[in-house]
Amino acid sequence: MSTAPNMVVGQSKAARWSFNIAVILLCLWVLVPIYLLISNALSAPADVNGFPKKLLPSVNTESVEFFIGFYGVTKALWSSVQVAFLTMVMAVLIGAPAGYALSRFDFRGKSLFRIMILMTRAFPLPLLALPMAIMFIKVGLDDTVFGLAIVHTTLALPFAVLITYSLFSGIPIELEEAAWTLGCNRLQAFIKVIFPLVLPGITASAIFAFVTSWNEVFAAAVLTIENRTLPAFLLQSLDDAPLHLKFAGGAVLVLPALLFLFFVRKYLFSMWGIANR
Amino acid sequence: MAEINIKQVAKRFGKTDALHSIDLTVEDQEFVVLLGASGCGKTTLLRIVAGLETASSGEVHIGGRRVDHLPPKDRGIAMVFQNYAVFPHLTVYENIAFGLRMAKLDEKEIDNRVNRTASLMHIDALLKRYSGQLSGGQRQRVAVARALATEPEVILMDEPLSNLDALLRMEMRAELKGILAQSKTTTIYVTHDQVEAMSMADRIAIMEAGKIIQADTPVEIYRNPAAHFVGSFIGNPPMNFLPAKKMDSSTWQVAGASYHGPASDKSEIQFAIRPEDLIVDANGPLQATVKLVEPLGSHLLASCNVENTLFRVALDSDAQVKAGDTLSLQPMSDRVRWFDTETKLALQ
Quick check: B87 and A177 CB within 8 A? Predict the structure, then answer.
């Protein structure tokens, strides 16, 4: 992990303390549920309901093994990965050019367009899900990985556009112009100069799209039956399952997203403090 | 051979005219400075020549070839930007090599040229660094080296020195002038700094409100401004202006004394003289009341009042003058200039 940002010299003790306390609280906010989830998932089924808890559970993979072996889990996991990956690719391929256009070109209705992008998130998904399901059935996209990925892309797209818009805006137009005068056409300048500079941010927005899809349960539950993604599958099958299996399912759901974020964390940091000077 | 011909180039942004039908010819290997206050259109004109902006009408020719429909890469130009625009993800070496790689030169030639331009710009020691590890002055050098390495016929510079501190600017000014003269490129250089313009240019094109007011050698522009604006813009302090009333066909009354001037049918024109072209003389016709004295080392600048108009005089630094004194001044007759009050243009 990166270290805490350097404090401004001369800040008061009280400010420093409240900063530290805020950091600790935020860490606990994230870490305690993860700890409970993993420790319970790794406990023997009998210990899950037991009290008092041991701080470090005796590692018992019984629940997890049972869960993994459970019929349909691996299939749902594979569907999830496919949908999330497709969502990621589509969100970036559509979102990044839109972000570029918003930042570099002036066109009529630009600010309206920008607001409309955000407005798409104002529609509650349940309102859209039913008509969408009917439409999908009509065109044959229902219960397919691709159909669900389209829905998830529309959810992830606004953020992809806005994140890439701010990324491109953070890069001085002169860099591109310099490349043009040095022998590049617009595409070459983009590939040789702009792309390397926005890559970290693009990666971050791709991950954001991936995680958006990975975590989405409502549309997935409505639009798929056979090809359920993991969240939708768990929602359906773990409802009546014993507690230790719910924990195992939760851990399996959280872990990939967690690992993914861990490996790309440095890109996420650079997304918020783009340093290209 | 790369002569630049700008023919009737105009540019409109929405309803405002940024450039009104500009005509300018830059000779092969000439160094022309576009000088003017911010917003006068000088950068827009440069960007039109570069191909970064399209003209609303008119033509641009470089080396006898019409280029206004071509993208920047096909115009045989290189450009240096005000904020340097050094690519942050590439080393200094790769920055300089960028244009050469685009031109698909072989690796050995690229290496030769990078090293040659780097040593010309005194940045050989920095080739492995990234732009984030360079000072402003060093980045400036990289930007110029990158432009020179492609051996362009035309170099376009957009206020390249304005982000440097004063001392460095003076140093770079002289260095750039020498290097550009050696490289035998045709140069258009945009600046708002008249000292920079005067010291570097073969010819200065003074712009105001989207028009070129005068394009001439620095000395000519300083001595014989074609318009009131040029006289008041060039020179620090600027020219002094006083109203002149007609006495007869070519005799004009200025501040109570009469002068021989141009023949004009106007009843009132303007008399103009540079602050250093006045001689203190007990019999001088101009009576000036000193308001403020500024000792500037090389000379002493006295801000005076002549007929309720601010009138500056450059005096010898030993002159014993204080506020409240009255100076009798004799304008050097061959340095007096006359301007039309309405058209603001020079009168012969």
Answer: no
The pLDDT value recorded for residue A273 is 46
A195: left (phi over 0), alpha (psi -120 to 50) or beta: alpha
A175:B103 CB<8 A: no
Chain B's closest residue to A176, CA to CA, is B85
ipTM greater than 0.90, yes or no? Answer: no
Q: List residues of B whose CB lies inside 8 A of any A CB.
A: 50-52, 71-73, 77-79, 81-83, 85, 87-89, 98-99, 102-103, 131-132, 146, 150, 156
Based on the fold, state whether residues A92 and A165 are members of the same structural domain.
Answer: yes
pTM over the 0.90 mark: no
State the CATH number of the domain containing residue A141: 1.10.3720.10
Residue A1 lies in a domain: no
Give the count of domains, chain A.
2
- Residue B52: which of A186, A177, A191, A172 has the closest Cα? A177
A87: in domain = yes
Average predicted confidence (pLDDT) for chain B: 88
Q: List, by residue range, all CATH 3.40.50.300 domains of chain B.
A: 4-232
Cβ contacts (< 8 Å) between B87 and chain A: which residues? 175, 178-179, 193
- Alpha-carbon span B292 to B279, nearest angstrom: 18
- Number of C-beta neighbours around residue B57 at 10 A: 13
Residue where one domain finishes, among candidates A32, A48, A64: A64
Query: Which residues on chain A are in Cβ contact (under 8 Å) with B83?
Result: 172, 174
Query: A235: alpha, beta or left, given left = phi > 0 and alpha = psi -120 to 50?
Result: alpha
- Phi, psi angles (nearest 5°) of residue B322: -135, 165
B185: closest CA of chain A, how far (Å): 16
Query: Domain B237-347 is in which class?
Result: mainly beta
Q: Please, where in chain B does CATH 2.40.50.140 lie?
A: 237-347
A174 vs B85: CB contact, 8 Å cut-off? yes
pLDDT in tens, B16-42: 888 898 899 999 889 999 998 888 888
Domain hosting A30: range is: 13-64
Please, are residues A92 and A198 in contact by the beta-carbon 8 Å criterion? Answer: no
Does residue A5 belong to any structural domain of this protein?
A: no
Residues A18 and A41 in one domain: yes
